[in-house]
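Long-time lurker. I teach an intro course on protein structure, and each term I like to show students one example going from raw sequence to a predicted 3D structure in token notation. This year I'd like something fresh instead of my usual example. Would anyone be willing to generate the tokens for the chain below so I can use it in lecture? Attribution to the forum is fine with me.
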Amino acid sequence: MSYRAFKKLLGETNLERKCRFLFGGGLMVLITASFSLNTWLNNQVLDDQNITSARLLVAPIILEKHWKWSESSEQYRLLIDKIAQSVKPKDLGDYSWAVFKANPSNADSKERPIDSSGYEALERIKQGESEIFYRDDSEGKFQYYGAIHATESCVACHRLRDDPDLEEGGLIGIVNIRFPLQKVEQALAWNKAINLASAIITAFLAMLAAYAIVRYVIVKPVLHLKDVSDQIAHGNLDLRADIRTGDEFEELSYAFNRMLRHLVTVQEELRTVNTDLDTKVDELAQVNLRLYEMNKLKDEFLATMSHELRTPLNSILGFSDLLASSKDLGEKQKRYVANIQMSGKNLLAQINDVLDLAKIESGKMELQLSEIAVADLIERRVGTMLPLADKKNIELTSEIDPKIPILFQDSVKIQQILNNLLSNAIKFTPEGGRVHVSATLCADDRDMMELVVED
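-- Reply from a regular --
Happy to contribute to a lecture. Here you go:
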């Protein structure tokens, strides 16, 4: 199974299937491990039992071997075989044995190993091993080879008969005991079949129990919460979760219901706030409508004022210009005419300022850009304001940085700004004061000009 398929199986499937898969997989691993361990332990017990039985049979076999050797009559030897066979334990009646001398070259055919495995076992025992055992699957037998060491009673006899150099504890020979494995393997197979059937039944019952537990203990409360959530999503806010399991799912349903009650409360509060907001929006719309109407009235008023005031004011200025050009006026009359001209121009400038302010507020102000010499503009404005400054005995001076380049700006708007600043400075400066106008390049940005009116 690829990683993507495994991830899809575990991470992208429903909860019930995921729990069954995990529980079933874990159960199969546990049963397989238990079955394998039980089989291995049974084999170990069988081997230990065979080894113990073989060890217990070594002494009777040696005794039987010596008994047969001591009897020269063949009839007695057959009788000894019958007696030995009759006294064998029932479970060990099928075993066979042979005794080999330690030096096969001096032995007859009955006392020499009959195959290579016997010679190999003899060599291993000569090298120091006391016993050798293994399963011979080719013959279906359990093979045991045990060493026979000389005791004090053995030395005198075997020195004369076999080995003059034999010492106590020396190797006399080996005993080979063979147990058939057919009955044992049948018993093991039957045991395995019973264990396998038990494992299958256990797995089936466990999976059935797991299905019931997952279905009714875990999945059913979750599906109930899902159904309630779907109903709430469709607008049924009166529905509540009802889980009575006495565990964490019941606590989860209580928490879900608390959350739902809080959600309903917040929704009611939000509905109330929205109602209030709609009311405020209506009020704001009405206020905006009134403001629009008032702004429209203001525009109409400014248009009317521009027409109604400018027309007679232009006539007054025109007639004052005619009077000023007349040569029959006296000094006093000329002064009166000059006052009329100055007052008319001031009034016209104020009207223009009001109209410009209205244009700025409405975003309709347009700039007429042209090249401007800052020094000439400031000198003209200062010259225009000198009469007002002289009347209040105010010193009006100017200072222009000669490095200021020609500007590309709206000269009319700059003149209006400078006029307003100078007129306010002269107006609010006490008699005998000082007003200074300066224009310099900014120290931190040489592309910017700083225009200052200081009083």
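Some talking points for your students: Residues 203 and 209 are 10 Å apart (CA to CA). The radius of gyration is 63 Å.
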